[in-house]
Amino acid sequence: MGPFNGSGVEFKCRPGYYSGRFIVEESGARILTAIGQCGVLSRHLISIITGCANTAKVLKRLAAKGYLDEYTSDRCPPVYSLGKKGAEILNARYRKWDSIRLLRMVAANQLWVQLSKMWPNSVWDTTGDYPILSKVGASYMIVAPRLADREKHFALRAVNLAGKNPLLVVAATQEQALDLARLNPEGTVRYTWDDLLRNGVFFYYLENDKLELDQDFEDKKFFDKNNEDIIDREILSVVQSL
Length: 242
Fold this sequence. Notes:
This protein is α+β, with helices and mostly antiparallel strands. The protein contains eight helices and eleven strands. A hairpin with a 6-residue loop joins strand 3 (68-72) and strand 4 (79-82). The protein is globular and about 60 Å long.
C-alpha cells in the first residue's frame, strides 16, 4: 500500500509569500511547468518528470517565495501545487486543495508518469473534476479513489459520467480495486492500484468475480478500439489544459 492511500491522512497547507523579485532558474521553471500541468505532485514525481537535481532545495525556495504551496502531513511525504505567484506566472487558476483531492491527484499522476513513457505525445489535463488523458483523437478519464469516506460514491460517479467510454481506475489497494470492480462488472473499466504502478502499467478487469490481467493492454488494443469514443468535456467540466 502506497503512502498516498488516504487512510487517516490529513494535509496542512504551508503557503509561501511573495516578497519581491526572485529569479526563477531553469530547474525552477521546469518544476513550475510540471506542477502547472499535473496540479499536484510529490517530490519523487517531480524528480522523475523534470529530471532536476537538488529538487528538495529548489522546491524549498519556490515554496518560500510563494511560487508553490506546500502541503504537509505526518503520515506521508509533502506534496506541492502552484502558489499564487506561480499561478500568476503561468496564467493559471490558483487552486486550494483539500486532503482527499490532493491524494487523488497524486495517485492519478503516478499513473500518468507511467503512461507518458508509452505515449510521449499524449496530453494530460488535470483542470477538471477528473483528469483526462488524450491521445490520437481519443480521451480517457482517470479516477483515483482513496481509502476514505465516500470514495466509493466518487468512483461510481466517474463510471456514470464515462458511460461507454473507457475509464481507468487507480485504486489505493488491490482489495479496493476488486470491491469497485464488483460494483460495475460490465463496461470498459480497467483497474490498477498504487503498488502496481511502481513497476510499470498493468490493468485488470473482473472475470468470474476475480481480477484478471488485461493482456490486450500490452498491445494497446483496449485503447485503440475505443478511439472513436470521445468523452464529452462539457459534461465533465474540463477546460483546455495549461
